[in-house]
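Sample pair:
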Amino acid sequence: MSSKAKQSQKLLLFRLFGSRLFGIGTLKIREILPFQRLTKLPHSHHAVIGTATFRGSAVPVIDMSAAVGYPALTREEQAKASIIVTDIQRQEIGFLVRSVQQIIETDWKSVMPPPKALGANAFITGLLDVDGDIIQLLDVELLLAKVYPESLDAQTVALTDVQSETLKSLNILLVDDSQVARKQLSDVLDSKDISYHVTANGDEALQVLLREHELGHPIDILVSDIEMPGLDGYELTFDIRDNASLQQPYIILHTSLNSEMSLSYANQVGANEALTKFDAEELLQAMLRGAAQAG
């Protein structure tokens, strides 16, 4: 490979409370709708304010302000608000936001990881400085896990003894900036007593790859998110494939994006597979395909 992998990232900026700006990648977005009459959902989380009709289907709508701990929008505020319809983790979800501002173009290298002092319950995966304004990138996976905690229930996957032992023999690296996604990945492997390394971003993952290679037990399988601060999944894949001195791992890009474009680009930069989160059976089967190739 002779040129640096580069894919610009477009972010939709919006407001939830006060003057703070938040952002979400446009590849997750299906459409932006003006507020409409919603159908109430009984026995739902307090942040789920009803369902909207989108292209003939009922889509649950979450008041994003309420979901992340800000005051819920009043009826008067809702009337002026917008619904961002997203396609995340194989489902359509609407997010009610106070106001939509603009779409900007950036790249993940410009995104800074959030300060660790924010703690485990911060709904932020990254920070971006745009002309002096600090944009907070929302951890939508954490938000959905808080609203739908049942989504975190461990998935039971049956493996044969041979399959389990095959995966246990591999050096596996997981990388994802979302704590929820890291937990889901870890739970799957922990349930099978499969050891692994785990990092929160691509820069750390690359350091682990280089270190393990120098120690003489290179990474066999890399499972990486795509959208991450600093070195994103595309650039991480490219950098690995562009390093002829590394023993090449089987790379599975694992993303909440359902976009065919993003999955196609994953293959272009050298990933072996690209999967949409989160299906434990599908992920383990992909790892087994990687094991077969490594063997």
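The chain has two domains: 9-149, 154-294.
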